[in-house]
Amino acid sequence: MAQPPATRRVPWYPQQMDALSRITHDPRVMGGRPCIRGLRMTAGTIVGLLAAGKTAADILAAYPYLEPDDINAALAYAAWRAEEVELPLAQ
Where are the beta strands (DSSP E) in 1-91? Predict the structure, then answer.
């Protein structure tokens, strides 16, 4: 029997939260856009490269200061943002 949603465990959640720790926001770096470990590489750039057909190996070769976990962090951040719901403020 399935557990009720309030107590159901999501096995990937701790790993996703750990991956998100690599995402930084600093107004002095790339205008505060989400970056990888404070570097001038945005999460969106990585996701865009993947969407354009580049492989993780291609990205790591082109940007040697990145680590494989950085690519996973960018994807985890994009997935988290895609699931986020923004509601208008009541006036």
Answer: 23-24, 35-36
